[in-house]
Design goal:
The protein has 19 helices and 16 strands. The chain is an alpha+beta fold. The strands form six sheets. Strands 10-9-12-13 form a four-stranded mixed sheet, covered by helices on one side. It has a four-stranded antiparallel sheet with strand order 14-15-11-16. A two-stranded antiparallel sheet has the order 1-4.
């Protein structure tokens, strides 16, 4: 199978394994061997493939390049399907605004807005256009159409004004290792020349031995030069740290904080089988990262909550978003962060706001008054990030999802959640025992609250039990209907509630590579990377902190992490009290369609 002369017991076992797994050996017949030493040569290095990749592998050969090893380098090409066709871009774009012509952008944006949003051509200045379109937005009921037209105008102006950075266009040139030098290139060529002389001398034994000695001596010098170059490069790398900036690349490397590029690899599906191609792998990843809200498994309690949230709100409307609120919302979004699907950054949004403030004010207030969160702002691109310590796992749960959302939608999210949280805090509606995503609170405050509880109990000679509970999936498992019910219980202003309700409908997400995209609907969870997520999570989790806990119990939360502290006079009592409180929490989790992670939950 691999063109060797001898087959021993290990070789037969390998043959049986390959046949049973329907694998193929790609090695081709060659005068050179994959392994060669002073004791002999053989083909012990194999290239193995499945039937899918077999037809894509071409030009398999054994390289003559010097490797400083008895094993030779194997080279082959993997054919790119549809190589002559235009490559699809499913990775999205990002506009490069550095060095961009703002005057050109403003002129083009004015032209595109007038073309799409005016009934006739516009010949007046930008200020008049801003006021005219603003008044038209105020008179329309179809905010979905208005947002689409404005977004397309903005996108077209960006296309004509700025350079476009596409992820798939970042083709890396051949990059050698950092320690490689021109001297090593010359030394490698000399070693290759000496090796070829030695290998081609076959009829003269004395001359062959002499050339073999010369080749080995030259090879030893080459290896010594490589070792010296590596050491010198390492010293230079370590000396990059300066007294003024100790947190540079050396620190990040030592602390394991460097962002390594992720390679999509085979995953194990729920049925125990492995994914066989890229599409299956992406589908498996998406199913894990975007859990579904199964309506068929709901109890009467869940159905009542759904029905309750569909009833109209009778509260007063909240005030409209102000100019300063919109300006601060734009400033709060870091323009260096990855944009959403449309590639538009917060810097571009700020430029647009400075030139067309009335249009944007009317646009966002129109969404608020009509209770419309546009669909294009509810579509997320999922970036799967590998969790620390799970790099070698083949389970899809090794990923955590980051959602990239369009900046225009993130602005509306921020305006919405800021208004909701202002209403809740102004009326003291949130439990003070939530220390995560809360203003002027931190982990230190949470730790001090636990310390005070324990100190008080120990002073009285009591025993304290601590139970830490972690919600499985947390943000991804947030139940929309429960969040809406909480807002109704809080008598949330009508327009904020209606916009939230629309925000929790018609959502979608996709995961992509350069050549493939898989889409799915979303009916559960708060996107990690959204502006609303933390606030909505605290709103749902608030009902847990408000449970009727006994006087000997205190529940302290930091985001989705809950610490249950229970005190009693005896061990038996503290065990009994703790179990009683856990029963309450278990009932709450079922009613809210959440599950706690058994592996991360602990008793102290």
């Amino acid at each position: 199978m691999w063109f060797d002369k001898l087959t021993n017991g290990r070789g037969k076992k390998l043959e049986e394994f390959l046949i049973s797994k329907q694998l193929f050996v790609i090695n081709e017949k060659s005068e050179m061997k994959t392994f060669q030493s002073s004791r002999g040569s053989s083909n012990i290095d194999l290239t193995i493939s499945n039937n899918i990749l077999l037809k894509e592998v071409q030009e398999w050969k054994i390289s003559e390049e010097e490797t400083c090893s008895d094993h030779r380098m194997i080279q082959f090409c993997i054919r790119q399907q549809n190589a002559l066709q235009t490559r699809n871009n499913f990775q999205g774009i990002k506009y490069i605004t550095r060095g961009g012509n703002l005057n050109k952008f403003e002129a083009l944006l004015s032209h595109e807005i007038a073309k799409r949003m005016c009934e006739s051509s516009w010949e007046k200045d930008t200020k008049d256009l801003d006021q005219y379109i603003s008044s038209r937005i105020a008179d329309t009921d179809d905010m979905e159409d208005i947002v689409n037209k404005f977004s397309e105008a903005l996108k077209e102006a960006c296309n004509k004004s700025f350079k476009i950075g596409r992820e798939f266009m970042k083709t890396r040139k051949h990059k050698t290792v950092p320690w490689w030098t021109e001297d090593l290139t010359i030394a490698r060529k000399r070693v290759n020349a000496f090796r070829k002389k030695y290998q081609r001398t076959k009829n003269n034994g004395n001359l062959r031995d002499q050339r073999q000695t010369e080749y080995q001596a030259e090879k030893a010098q080459y290896q010594a030069k490589i070792k010296k170059a590596k050491l010198h490069s390492w010293k230079q790398y370590c000396n990059k740290t300066s007294p003024t900036n100790p947190w540079n690349i050396v620190y990040k490397s030592a602390a394991g904080k460097l962002n390594n590029s992720q390679i999509i690899s085979t995953l194990q599906k729920t049925n125990g089988l492995n994914t066989e191609n890229l599409r299956e792998t992406l589908q498996c990843t998406l199913e894990q990262l975007i859990p579904k809200d199964e309506v068929t498994e709901e109890t009467d309690h869940h159905k009542k909550i759904r029905t309750f949230t569909e009833e109209p709100m009778e509260t007063e409307d909240n005030m409209e978003f102000t100019t300063e609120e919109i300006r601060q919302a734009i400033k709060s979004i870091d323009h260096k962060k990855a944009p959403g699907e449309d590639g538009i950054t917060s810097k571009i949004i700020m430029w647009t706001f400075e030139r067309f403030p009335q249009i944007m004010i009317s646009l966002y207030n129109g969404c608020l008054s009509k209770g419309c969160f546009p669909k294009r702002w509810k579509r997320a691109r999922i970036i799967p990030l590998i969790k620390p310590g799970k790099e070698n796992s083949n389970d899809a749960s090794k990923y955590r999802p980051i959602s990239l959302l369009n900046v225009g939608g993130k602005m509306l999210e921020k305006l919405l959640i800021n208004s909701i949280m202002h209403y809740l805090y102004s009326n003291n509606l949130l439990n003070p025992n939530q220390y995560g995503f809360s203003p002027q609170k931190s982990t230190t405050d949470a730790a001090m609250a636990v310390k005070d509880f324990i100190d008080e109990a120990l002073t009285k000679g009591q025993i304290v039990a601590l139970v830490s509970l972690d919600v499985k999936g947390a943000f991804d498992a947030a139940w929309w209907s429960r969040i809406l019910k909480a807002l109704k219980d809080f008598h949330c202003p009508r327009n904020l509630y209606n916009l939230t309700k629309n925000y929790f409908s018609g959502r979608s997400a996709y995961i992509s590579t350069n050549s493939m995209r898989i889409d799915t609907t979303v009916n559960k969870g708060c996107p990690q990377g959204s502006c609303c997520g933390p606030g909505y999570w605290n709103i749902q989790y608030n009902s847990l902190l408000n449970l009727n806990f006994a006087k000997w119990t205190r529940a302290i939360a930091f985001a989705d992490d809950l610490l249950l502290a229970v005190k009693a006079t005896t061990v038996a009592e503290v065990e009994n009290f703790t179990n009683m409180e856990i029963i309450k929490i278990t009932k709450w989790s079922k009613e809210n369609k959440l599950h706690f992670n058994d592996q991360k939950s602990k008793l102290y």
